[in-house]
Structures are given as structure tokens and as C-alpha cells.
Design a protein that fits this description.
11 helices, eleven-stranded mixed β-sheet, 11 strands, homodimer, alpha/beta
């Protein structure tokens, strides 16, 4: 490997379409970027059979795979030869600056903390996800790394989200809001209220107060801060509504000739809207607060989504995002 | 008033369409049900001018109105002559068995606790809302009465929700689930886990474990139990997505002649789906755990929605729901 290049470890065995689509994504990535090298971790023979012949693609053999149903922390601890663990060990040792996986979210979070390690000053990591809204694409964090949070955790999420929005999502002066049960100051629980007080002390943060569930849809914030419990429920609810509507609409349209004809005429509009609200289109989800660029790709990722997640990891490393995080010791 | 009849106090001044649509709803209700009398609370002259001439409709003058922007508890305490407070005082005194309002949710919750009073054994009230899903209409509670909950609060919500689902929503053996960030037992935070342990001890409860955000959409539970913080965010997010899609679709369709023609052909299907998922269609939202039938109608309610909320209050009283709540002293 050339010392000048950005090195990204890519878990070849994680996700529904591993290893073929992961390998195809790796090829796309080295074709697109001249400055990266990719180390595919996983079953050497299987990876080779996918045809990854490129001088900037390497293979690190891993004999084990972490199953999505395994207890995340136990799996990361015990399966030392798993493709995910080996990718993360590379980041820990500095042999790679980042890693990408479409495997179990829980295992990626556990590995981020237990193997890659937290950034100095960061108490808990946050998984961010770019969510498409009517006006823009916002970043929501945390959506599943830290179930319940202290006000200080939420403050740190705000700082990490602000930096990510600015550096990776190219928002000039991102507005940060806290997800709450109403926008009035009397709303919120003790945690959200405590976070509000801490965030308001940071002059550098463009803080907009609380955001309600319905405003999330309209994009009334660039960064939406919440605990992992709420974030996870909100994200899955949104996904579920979109999938449910799609399924119902398909069933209903089948029943009527008129509706079928109408659907043909409306197809371009429906496809456009569907694509716009499919958050999987918007690249990978960063695990923020760990000592490297750890990017989670969706479990259903095909090669374009893998390329997108690798691009995010590359930008994260290129922009030196982690070096710019300023966490004061307080709160 | 006849002692045999069910008496419902109806806040004539609450909601976007007060008092005209509230009064029209009252008329519809006494026409539909022979066994109810309605007491409209509010400005006597304004109510009279709406034409509510019926021997089973009465007026109780109230000189004040609680504004949606007022601090709920302060407003309920100070505005003793408000239409909502007077309606709730009637329930407290036993002059009415229930009350209905399309006014401020916060004030209704505050009044439920401070004026009507909690049921013996109930620690905190819960606002339930019937939510339409793909397979059924589920009851979600709490959606805004009790922001953060103890495990015992959630257990009580499960018991109240079970009873309401059975008696008012006519579900034979309702399945109860806890809203969580995953369905596996290792998911959930301490509160949800604690609630799970308490609920599992109740053999009478048909308990199905955790439910995720996406499963809510499919209707994988009859009763979904959560704290008011999560419930409020989830409800508003769902509302927001539906409104957002409607608005985007309308805008996009305008841009294309083909899509416009397609929309005309698809209109019956779209209207059918829209109606099905418009949760305002599904009657009022019960404030459970208070000593009377307190039903919140949506702020945008027109007369059919008011009729629907009054019907729910009538059924709640008729079925003696509160008398059947069995809360053990434990947890």
C-alpha cells in the first residue's frame, strides 16, 4: 500500500448482498477515486471469486462472520477472526483510517467502542443518518448507538453533528435542534431541557431549540439531536410508513383498471418522490465519536450504496473531521 | 335533566371551529342517541346564536376561554370561568359523567388531573389515540399526558389500554406491546425493560413483547404502550409524513399534464387511502386514568368529529369502563 493513499477497510461479508455487491462497490470506488486503497476483509476465496483484480484492492482473510442475530458486544468480543472485527482492528492499529460495513448495526456500534475506541473527551458514540425531508437532507443523531442519554451526551452529539453537517454534508452554518414533544420551552423532559441549557452556552452552535416530529418531515433543521431510543423509533416509523403506503397503493391499484391506467401516467412523479424519500440513497451512516471513520452502509446495500458509503468514509478522512472536534470538559 | 340519561359536558369554545361546529356536533349527537343530554359550556349568547334548540341540549355560561398558547396548568388553575374548566367541574361534581373538548391538549390533561382527578390507584394519566394501520386500528398510549414514565406508569397504561381496546374498540383479546428500539429482549432501556417485567406478571394481559416503529404501521399490536415523549414524537412524525407527501404530490402533479390526468384516474384510490390513514376519522382520544370520561377531540374537528368524540364519551360511560379497571398496588 502506498503511504500517501487513504486506506479504507471494507467488511466484505456484511449485509444481505455480501460478498458480491460489496466487492463490486469496492471496484467502483477505486475506479472513482485515485487516492484510496481498499482492504476487503472476509473469506479470501469467496472474495477472489468476485473478481476484484485491482492494484489498489487488497484482501485480508477473515474466517468468521458476525450474524445479524448475535448479541452485538459478545460477537465483537468473541469472534476475533470475523470480517468486521478484523476491519476494525485495522483502524485501531492505524493500518486503515476508516472502515465500512453493511453488517449488523449493533456489532458496528459495539466494535466502534470496543475495538476502534472512543475519541478523547467523547463519552458515548452516536450513529447519524442523513434523512431526506421536503426542504433538504437533515442529519439525525443518535439513531441507535446510545439508547438513553444524559444532557452531556446530547451536547456532544450536537457538536459532532454540527461538524459532520458542515464538513461532509456541506451545510454552511447548520442549524441544530433537539427532538422534543413540542417546540415551546416548557416542553421536553429533564434530559432534553438539560441538553438545551448546555447547548445554549455554546456560541458557536447555531441552535434553534426544539423540533417536533412533524417538523422533521419538512426539514426544519439541519441537525436533529435525540437519544438512540427515540431516534431509532422515529427512523423505523418513517421507513415503515413509506413501505406501508407503497404496499397499500400497489394492492389498491391492482383492483381498478382506472387506477392502473392512472398509475402508469403518474409513474414518473411517484418514482421521483419515492427516490427522494428513500433515505438509503443518501450514503452511509456515520458512527460519530470513535477514533476513525466508521461508516455503516444499509444492510440491503448494492454496489452503488457501497460506493456511496466508501465515498463518505473517504471524505471523512480527507476532511480530517475527527481532528476538528472540540469537546470541552464540562456538563 | 332526566336522571336516567347520560350527561356529557361539551366545551363549546375549544378548537378551531368553535362554537359553530361544536354546537352542530351536539345537535347531531342528541339526534343520534336518545339516552344522552349535552351541556354546552361557553359564551351563552354565542352558543344560542348557533341554534341549539333541543330539550336535551343545555347551556352553562362560561365567560373565559383557554387559549392554546397558554401554559396548560396555569390556565386551568387561574381561569375558573373558562369553558373547559366549567365542563370539567361538572364532571368533578358528578353533574356530568363525561366531558369532551377540542381545545388545548395540555389544558385537557391538566384539567383531567387537577379538576376531574385521578382514579384511585392510578399514578399518572395517559392520553390514548386510535391510530389506523394497515391491518387494523390500534390504540397508542401515552401520546402526551405523561412525558417520562416509570415502569409502573407503563404497566398502568397497559391495563387501561387493554380495557379501552376491549370495551370501546371491541377487540376481543387485545394484544399489548411496548414501543421499543427493537423486538429482541436485549433491546429497550431500563424503563421499558422494567415495564416488560411487570406486565409479564399479569396473566390477564395478552402481552406480545416489544414493537418497533415500522411494525406500528402494519398494525402488529392492538395496544401500543409508550411514554408521552416517544408517543408524541411518533404521532406527530406520522401526521407530518402524511401531510408532507400530500403536499409534495400535489405540487409535483401540477407540473405535468400526464400526472394530472393520472391523478384524476387515481383519485378514488388516493382518497380512500388518505381517509383510511387520517387518524382524525377515528373518533376522540381518551384521557385514561381520570375519574370520568374525558375525551379530547382534534383541534380541527368539525361536527362529525364532535359527534364521534361524544359517541366515544357515551360508550365509555355506558360500558362503565372506569369501574372495571383493576390496578393492584405494586411495582
Amino acid at each position: 500500500m502506498s503511504g500517501k493513499n487513504i486506506v479504507i477497510a471494507l467488511d466484505a461479508m456484511g449485509g444481505d448482498n455480501a460478498p458480491s455487491e460489496i466487492c463490486a462497490g469496492a471496484l467502483k470506488a477505486v475506479e472513482k477515486y485515485n487516492d484510496i486503497e481498499i482492504v476487503l476483509t472476509g473469506d479470501k476465496e469467496k472474495i477472489k471469486s468476485c473478481g476484484v483484480d485491482n492494484p489498489r484492492i487488497h484482501i485480508e482473510h477473515a474466517s468468521e462472520i458476525i450474524d445479524p442475530d448475535e448479541h452485538p458486544a459478545n460477537a465483537i468480543r468473541k469472534k476475533k477472526n470475523s470480517s468486521l472485527r478484523i476491519a476494525m482492528e485495522m483502524v485501531r492499529r492505524g493500518d486503515a483510517q476508516g472502515c465500512v460495513s453493511a453488517g449488523s448495526t449493533g456489532a458496528i456500534v459495539a466494535g466502534g467502542v470496543l475495538v476502534v475506541g472512543r475519541l478523547p473527551g467523547v463519552d458515548r458514540p452516536a450513529l447519524g443518518v442523513p434523512i431526506p425531508s421536503i426542504e433538504k437532507v437533515s442529519l439525525m443523531l443518535d439513531v441507535g448507538a446510545t439508547v438513553r442519554c444524559t444532557p452531556k451526551n446530547l451536547l456532544q452529539f450536537a457538536l459532532m453533528g454540527e461538524l459532520y453537517s458542515r464538513k461532509i454534508m456541506n451545510v454552511a452554518n447548520p442549524e441544530i435542534k433537539l427532538l422534543s414533544n413540542g417546540t415551546e420551552e416548557i416542553k421536553g423532559d429533564d434530559t432534553v431541557l438539560g441538553a438545551r441549557e448546555l447547548i445554549e452556552q455554546y456560541e458557536k452552535i447555531n441552535f434553534g431549540g426544539y423540533i417536533e416530529g412533524n417538523e422533521v418531515v419538512w426539514g426544519h433543521a439541519d441537525v436533529i439531536v435525540c437519544d438512540g431510543f427515540n431516534g431509532n423509533i422515529a427512523l423505523k416509523l418513517g421507513e415503515g410508513i413509506m413501505q406501508g403506503l407503497k404496499s397499500l397503493l400497489t394492492d389498491e391499484v391492482k383492483k381498478s383498471f382506472m387506477a392502473k391506467a392512472g398509475m402508469v401516467l403518474m409513474a414518473p412523479v411517484v418514482k421521483k418522490l419515492w427516490k427522494r424519500f428513500n433515505y438509503e440513497q443518501y450514503g452511509g451512516s456515520p458512527l460519530l465519536g470513535v477514533n476513525g471513520a466508521v461508516i455503516k452502509a444499509h444492510g440491503r446495500s448494492k454496489s452503488p450504496a457501497i460506493l456511496s458509503a466508501v465515498s463518505v468514509a473517504r471524505n471523512f478522512i480527507y476532511e480530517k473531521v475527527n481532528d476538528q472536534l472540540e469537546i470541552r470538559n464540562e456538563g
